[in-house]
Amino acid sequence: MNQRPLSPHLGVYKFAYTMALSILHRIMGGALSVGLLVLVWWLLALAQGPDAYAKAVEVLSSWFFKLLLGGWALAFIYHFCNGIRHLFWDAGAGLERHQARRSGAFVAVATVVLFALFVWVAYCAAPVMR
Predict the structure, then answer these.
(1) Tell me: the pLDDT tens digits for 37-78?
(2) How many separate domains does the chain show?
(3) Fewest CB within a 10 Å sphere: which of 13, 22, 57, 102?
């Protein structure tokens, strides 16, 4: 049997927070896919009429779905910010190690700030969220 070289994997590299950001980006993308299914269900309920929509609103107004909706908002904000970072990489900018680490820290801070702003606006401006 031939001894073929292995692709680099987690056992080869020393852990860095940029790796965690990359893994988190993929996880958040998966979470957003599940959230998209909930959005489609809500839109279908809207199209089916007042009774179906009232039932959907009742379910989505529960504390559990409010928690999930907050999680999906966080996932969207992180995935959006990190996606912009990836667009810069696709253009060939920010690929050096120190630049990637700096942009990773920026993504983390931007996510926290934007999510805090989202929570503040949702709490102050949308009494439905309470």
Answers:
(1) 999 999 999 999 999 999 999 999 999 999 999 999 999 999
(2) 1
(3) 13
